[in-house]
Amino acid sequence: MTPKQPKDCILQGQELHLDYAGKSVIAGLNIHIPRGRLTVILGTNGCGKSSLLKMLSQVLPPSKGRVVLDGKTLAEMGNKERARQLALLVQKPELPEGIEVQELVSRGRYPHQTLWQQWSPVDERAVANALSATGLTGMARHQVASLSGGQQQRVWLALVLAQQSDVLLLDEPTSFLDIRAQLSVMDFCKALRQQGRTLVLVLHDINQALRYADHLLLMREGRILAQGAPEELISEQLLRDAFDLDARIIRDPEAGCPMLIPRVCQYDHAWDRREGPV
Amino acid sequence: MSVSRFPVWQWGPLTIRAPARGAVKTAVFGTLGVFLALALSLTLGEAGLSPDRLLQAFRGEAEPYEHWLFWQSRLPRALTALGVGVALGVAGAIFQSLSRNPLGSPDIIGINAGASAGAVLWLLLVPGMSVAWGALIGVVTVLLLLIPGMGRNGQLSRSLVLMGVAINALAIALVQFALTLVQREQAQQMLGYLAGSLSHRDWQQVTLIATTLAVALPWLLLLSRRLGLLALGRDTAISLGVPLRTTQLLALVLATVLALGAVLCAGPVAFVALVAPHLARWNGKQLALLRSGLIGALLLLGADTLTLILPGTQRLPVGVLTAMLGGAYLAWILFAELFRQRTPS
């Protein structure tokens, strides 16, 4: 299938290759991220979603190919210049011992600071805004480690917000959260998109992707299988191709968008038969 | 709304964040502590000067012997202890943050062992000249072995401690080998060096350690913000715009320079670099380079003062004392940790 390319792209990966430990993880991938939209990348574990996000943010420089951000090649931009325009929230950031919410969120200001401008009123305001947008103002002095999983994820989102970049790449921002916390993260992302920011999320919950995404990308084994608006893109065949999943697609009674219901498992040991249903 | 925790200070083009209350407290208590430790170190011990004689010597009104004792023996010794302590405390904090390992310190990473091996081999091969050259060569060799550990992706933390253990083993084997080859007097001299000592220090050592600190500390303070970002993990640090490899390389080299300065002034003093960062973090706060340096200084000067007042004809080298105290402290932490895990919560 030849994927339809979105017209106005803020971020593009051109002919991306990634070799990891002598093995080719991604070979010749082209990706286009539409400006001001919420894009969700879906795919099985190990299909290269996280690697792709890291390549798009230069955290893992591609072995071949280039990433273009708003007309500029990412590899040729300065580190801080890049970080001012593009933020990445990794799947498992490391939490330094004993750090307070406000201290952690202020570190997001690093790309805006120089030797002379170590801390300015602008930084101060950006941190305060990030804290209030994530509802953390009252917890600014709390130890991050003492917060719940959902609150900690809000702290990491606040760190990325303080960075004030136009493009945000979020790697599984809802994993390990309870359903209420997952939905508030998704609603928060939607609100950011309505402010005109570009978001790229890696998700595992296909129904959440269908409900929140403007643009959907399905990956399989380091390739892009299909991309487009969820409504037009999703089909039972595509789910079979992308996930080896036998599912029905029905209409979400609440939001009116497509949603999937996995069929009752007809095959005995799924672990022995990754190839697909009988 | 504004968050008043970190008010902004401005001087012309320079704007910085006002230090938090904790930092001010550290500075005040640290300065007081250093003065107290200095006073104790100069007045205690059998050759100690009583406070009034101390003042006389300071004003240059004392008898010639006491004048010499103050200016040429006790004061340089105490200042060397302070400087070496700062260097070890800061170097330990950097190595721990680079290796993300509470055991990362010049003792464990092989820098002290490299200096020892270099010095001992130098004594063996070039008996006439100062062992400092040997120690220098040893430390530079260790640094050159550690740098490739950064790899292409800057995975320094994983390799640093493992590589250090290997280097340590090699260096200690070299030291043992050299010790079997030499005469008894020479072995005595080598063992004296290997323990790490602060006796017979003069202004040469003070100048050396002061220069080392003056060169390395400003750079490290500038780097400390980036080191704080590295603590969020490699990927987050890069995505925030930290040049990973440059930062790691600079921090590694500067911490090694500090450890080298310490080793050249006092020999391989054990455990101060390991324990100081732990004590600096005792209240669960962030890694603070200067606080760790301050605690290192107090530890080493305190330990040295202790060697002066302990009874016995033969003075204990300060390195032996820090190793004993540090070992006991580490064992205590581990036991406390184990005990805490045993008790059902």
Model description:
Chain B: Belongs to the binding-protein-dependent transport system permease family. FecCD subfamily. Chain B: It is found in: Cell membrane. Chain B: Its main location: membrane. Chain B: Keywords: Cell membrane, Membrane, Transmembrane, Transmembrane helix, Transport. Chain B: This is Iron chelate uptake ABC transporter family permease subunit. The complex is a heterodimer of chains A (278) and B (345). Chain A has a six-stranded mixed beta sheet, with helices on both faces. A four-stranded antiparallel beta sheet of chain A has the order 2-1-4-5, covered by helices on one side. In chain A, strands 11-12 form a two-stranded antiparallel ribbon. Chain A is of the alpha/beta class. Chain A has one domain: 3-Layer(aba) Sandwich (Rossmann fold). Chain A is globular and about 60 Å long. In chain A, strand 9 and strand 10 form a beta hairpin. Chain A starts with 8 loop residues before the first strand and ends in a 16-residue tail after the last strand. Chain A contains nine helices and twelve strands. Chain B is mainly alpha-helical and 345 residues long. Chain B has a single domain, classed as ABC transporter involved in vitamin B12 uptake, BtuC (Orthogonal Bundle). In chain B, strands 1-2 form a two-stranded antiparallel sheet. In chain B, helix 1 runs parallel beside helix 13 and helix 3 crosses helix 12. The two termini of chain B are 41 Å apart. The mean pLDDT of chain B is 84. Classes of the chains: A alpha/beta (278), B mainly alpha (345). At the A-B interface, helix 2, strand 6, helix 3 and helix 4 of A face strand 2, helix 9 and helix 10 of B.
